[in-house]
Structures are given as structure tokens and as C-alpha cells.
Amino acid sequence: MHDDIERILLGESELRAGVERVAAEIAQVYCHEEPLVVAVLDGSVVFVADLIRQLPIPLRLSFVWARSYGAGTRGGELTQGGFPDASELRGRRVLLVDDILDSGRTLLALQRELALRGPRDVRTCVLLDKPVRRQVELQADHVGFQIEDAFVVGYGLDLAGRYRNLPYVGVLKSAVLAAAETGA
Ligand code: IMP
Ligand code: MG
Q: Cα–Cα–Cα angle for 61, 67, 73, nearest 5°?
């Protein structure tokens, strides 16, 4: 697995520092309002697990799922589901957490779908942000790291379901990427 990585973009201690910084921002926003943290499966699992343990505030945790079809590195048609009931969301402050903001289509669709269920507000938090890739008008409220336009894996992020368990964020070797694009 490590052999497929060309270089490490964010190592373990850098990630830890970033998570601590974002958690401090978030703790300031919510204080004692018991927000509902809604994490996007599967990619944000590692990030959200570390993030909530750095949040010294009362909160609730829930998960939604989002998938864009296609095994390679390009997003296709978007499907989503698993939303909390309106009774859980009504009047509550929501923090939507995802692994990465790329085109922005996923997070925007999820934010809109959650907003329909009557929360007080929906803020967004991502570990990684690739601003040059944006196709919709959206900025996350809390960002761990802005990164270059490279396909990254690890710390929850995958290529066709693999590499989520790497403890760092790394750039894949171009040969590995090319093989995935052609379905090899
Ligand atoms: P968006 O809808 O284009 O913003 O894409 C968001 C989703 O695409 C993320 O939740 C990831 O699952 C996936 N994604 C985008 N860029 C990367 C990457 O560099 N590595 C792994 N997954 C990515
Ligand atoms: Mg993914």
C-alpha cells in the first residue's frame, strides 16, 4: 500500500495540528448549543473520529452517505441518503463534515438537503479543500488544509475503496492512478 504513494502531503503530526486548529474554531462557534455533527460516509470517518474527540462541547453525531458513480478519480452522477429525521434536525445547529471539497457538488447537495429539514443553520467543515477545482459557489466554513490539485488518498480518502487506512494524506503514483482510470 505504501509503495503506491509518490509522496506524503500531510503527515500524522501535521494532520493532528490541523484537526486541533479546526476543532478550536468550531468549539468557539457552538459553545453550549449541542450541535448535530453530520459526517459524510465513508470518507470523513477518520477525520470526524479525531475531530469530535478534540471538541470539548456537548454534541450529537449522525451520518449521511453520498456517492458519485465511477471508480476512477472523476465524479459522476450523485446519489445521497441516510438523512436524519426532521424531528432530529428542527431548530438544531448542524455541522456537516466531509473529507474533501473538490468540485463542491457533493457538499452543496447535502447542505441543501439538510436545510430542507428545518435546522437553525448548517455550517460546513472539511479536512481538505482544493479551491481550483470548484464548479459551484461554495466555501466551507472550516477548512483543515487547502491543497494543490492532486488526487490524494489516506486518512479516510480512497481510490476505488482503497487506501482509507493510511495514517497520512499522500499523493498516488501516476501509474497507480492511470491503472484505476482504465479500470485495470
Ligand atoms: P466533489 O463533489 O467534487 O466536491 O467531491 C467530493 C467527493 O469526491 C469527496 O467526498 C471525495 O469522496 C471525492 N474526492 C474528491 N477529490 C478527491 C481526492 O483527491 N481523493 C479522494 N477522493 C476525492
Ligand atoms: Mg470518496
A: 125
Structure confidence by residue, pLDDT tens digits, 15-61: 999 999 999 999 999 988 999 999 999 999 999 999 999 999 999 99
Residue nearest to atom 20 of ligand 1 (CA): 152
Residues with C-beta less than 6 Å from any ligand 1 atom: 43, 75, 98-107, 151-153, 157
Options 42, 102, 121, 129, the catalytic residue: 102
This model's pTM is above 0.70: yes
The cell numbers describing 176, all together, are 497507480
| Residues 100-134: tens digit of each pLDDT | 999 999 999 999 999 999 999 999 999 999 999 99
Which residue is listed with cell 490541523? Answer: 18
Q: What is the DSSP string of 55-117?
A: --S--EEEEEEEEES-SSSS--SEEEE-PPPHHHHTT-EEEEEEEEESSSHHHHHHHHHHHTT
Cα 107 to middle of ligand 2, angstroms: 12
* Local structure of 29: helix, strand or coil: helix
Question: Would residue 158 show up in a list of annotated catalytic residues for this protein?
Answer: no
